[in-house]
Design goal:
This protein is elongated. It is of the alpha/beta class. The chain has 13 helices and 9 strands. Helix content is 56%, strand content 14%. Helix 8 crosses helix 12, helix 11 packs antiparallel against helix 12 and helix 12 packs across helix 13.
Length: 296
């Protein structure tokens, strides 16, 4: 049992992360609501369990990688129902900090340790095993899990107590998501001014407006490639978590609140399952111009 890791949530991020654990030689027991995803991991060498509770009975460590706070709460409580004292649960989802800390207290009363370990790097980083893993929780639990984190990520950080990994992840996502909206506005302004989108990106890449967000989103906007690396729905969800945390702590969050409305408009327009860079289509619609379109 000590050599096995449980893993629930085999989606666009979780599936590649689980595969990297297998590649590193970890025994893996998996579950997902989508049987096709379970089958793919089974064919790659993972064992299969029918529920989180069954996973925790077989493993010393259990990972949750689902999308929402409600889903994470359900999965983690499932782990707790099957886990023995000394079990370590790792929440790698980006969820509500307050809710996770409350779960930590529930699990601690049963002798179970909880870590938050959200990741950054998108689907490409998940596939390549180059994610940043940003962890909070008991130092002894982090030490016990560090090897598995390094199988999934190139950069591993322990930030402090439970919830600090999530707080750091939310800050990172906040900066990215605000920048994506700003890049969309800049690209659309350039199109309206008659500038070629390729030239706009070429100039920005060697000027003070350059950023990782530009490299990730600018070419996608120009190429109309909105296949999801991180969906608009997830961007909206993350910004809801950012602003909720800020409200709880009494911190003003003007830009996060404003940029969130662009993601909401994109969701309303039907782009929720597209990449977050699809917000450019909302701004194009408001400005009456499309990137790359011939001007009359």
């Amino acid at each position: 049992m000590a050599d096995k890791i449980g893993f629930v949530g085999l989606g666009a991020m979780g599936g590649p992360m689980a595969r990297n654990l297998l590649k590193a030689g970890f025994g893996l027991v998996v579950h997902d609501i989508d049987p096709r995803k379970v089958q793919a991991l089974s064919e790659a060498g993972a064992e299969v369990a029918h529920a989180p509770e069954a996973i925790a009975r077989q493993c010393a460590h259990s990972i949750c990688m689902v999308e929402t706070t409600a889903q994470a709460e359900s999965v983690i409580r499932g782990f707790a129902a099957g886990a023995a004292p000394g079990h370590i649960v790792i929440c790698m989802s980006t969820v509500d900090v307050t809710a996770l800390r409350a779960l930590g207290e529930e699990l601690s009363a049963k002798g179970i340790m909880l870590l938050d370990a959200p990741v950054s790097g998108g689907t490409k980083g998940a596939a390549a095993g180059t994610l940043s893993v940003i962890c909070g929780g008991p130092s002894e639990a982090f030490a016990a899990c560090e090897a598995m984190f390094r199988a999934m990520g190139a950069n591993v950080f322990h930030m402090g107590d439970l919830g600090t990994g999530l707080a750091m992840k939310l800050i990172n996502n906040m900066l990215l998501q605000i920048q994506v909206v700003a890049i969309a506005e800049g690209m659309v302004l350039g199109a309206k001014a008659g500038l070629d989108a390729e030239r706009v990106i070429e100039v920005l890449r060697v000027s003070t407006g350059r950023s990782e967000a530009l490299e990730r989103s600018g070419p996608r906007m120009m190429a109309r490639d909105f296949s999801p690396s991180g969906t608009t729905d997830i961007s909206y969800k993350d910004q809801e978590l950012q602003t909720a945390l800020a409200k709880a702590l009494g911190v003003p969050m003007m830009l996060a609140n404003v940029s969130q409305q662009f993601y909401q408009m994109a969701r309303t327009a039907g782009y929720g399952k597209e990449d977050g860079s699809a917000v450019v289509k909302v701004i194009e619609g408001l400005a009456g111009v499309t990137l790359g379109a011939k001007r009359g």
